[in-house]
Protein: Holin
Amino acid sequence: MRECIKFFEVIAMALGAVLGWYLGSPDGFFYALVAFVVADYVTGVLRAVVERKLSSTIGFRGIARKIMIFILVGVAHLIDTFVVPDANDVIRTAVIFFYIANEGLSIIENSAALGLPIPTELAITLKQLHREEINEQDEEEN
Structure:
């Protein structure tokens, strides 16, 4: 039994080391991103339950998108580390900020869909950010 526990400890340490190398050192921004990703997923599931649209396919797609967020954070960290070594994790931090904002907007949308009142200023900002995202996507396609 002890050998089995020791084996899993070694696996967990190796996985932690690889993730630490790939994602960079966990800082406050990274912890905030993790919290926002989890909160967005939970509020999305709650919204799906209330709207009776819960689907394992959609849920799996949501998990895949969340995993992709962390893959992109890792890519940004590798760029900071090996391509632009004097960047001091600027690219990683920018990617994290982008996804914190994105996840925050999604949390607000889910909350509004569940009937939670959203402050007017927040709703206006949400609408403006959505318009900007749509405009940026249109520009990228052209």
User: Anything to note?
Assistant: The chain has a mean pLDDT of 89.
